[in-house]
Amino acid sequence: MNLMNGVRPPRQGENVVYICYKCQHRFTAKLSILPLPVKCPECGSLKTSRDFGVAY
Q1: How far apart are CA 21 and CA 28, in angstroms?
Q2: Which of 13, 21, 39, 42 is the most buried (most CB within 10 A)?
Q3: What confidence tens digit (pLDDT) does each residue in 1-56 have?
Q4: Burial of 48 (0-12, 13-18, 19+ CB in 10 A)
Q5: Rounded distance, CA 4 to CA 6, Å?
Q6: 27: number of CA atoms within 13 Å, CB side?
Q7: Which residues contact 56 (CB under 8 A, 6 or more apart)?
Q8: CA-to-CA distance for 16 and 3, rounded, in angstroms?
Q9: Are 1 and 8 in contact (CB under 8 A)?
Q10: Which residues lie across from 49 on neighbouring strands?
Q11: What would the DSSP string read from start to end of 9-47?
Q12: In terms of DSSP bridges, do strands 48-50 and 26-30 run parallel, antiparallel, or are they unpaired?
C-alpha cells in the first residue's frame, strides 16, 4: 500500500460496490470474510463481482 495516496483496501464488514453481469446494476453490499457470491437486488442473479473500478 502506498501511504502517500491515502487509498486503502476495504476491510471486512465495510460496504463495497458490486456489479451484476446480467443486468449491469451497481449496488453496495458488505464485504464478507468468505468469497461467497452476492445476490443482485434488482434481478436476483448471483452473477456478480466487486467493481474494482471504484476507489475507496
Answers
A1: 15
A2: 39
A3: 555 677 778 888 899 999 999 999 999 999 988 888 899 999 999 999 999 887 66
A4: buried
A5: 6
A6: 18
A7: 7, 8, 9, 10, 14, 16
A8: 21
A9: yes
A10: 19
A11: PPPTTSEEEEEETTT--EEEEEPPSS------TTT--S-
A12: unpaired
d(CA 7, CA 13): 17
List the end-to-end C-alpha distance of the chain, in Å, as a whole number. Answer: 13
Q: Running DSSP on this structure, what letter comes out for residue 53?
A: T
Q: Please state, as a whole number, how many other Cβ atoms lie within 10 Å of the Cβ of residue 17.
A: 15
Q: Which three cell numbers stand for residue 48?
A: 456478480
Give the whole-angstrom CA distance, residue 2 versus residue 39: 33
Q: Cell numbers for 40, please give them.
A: 443482485
39 near 46, Cβ under 8 Å? yes
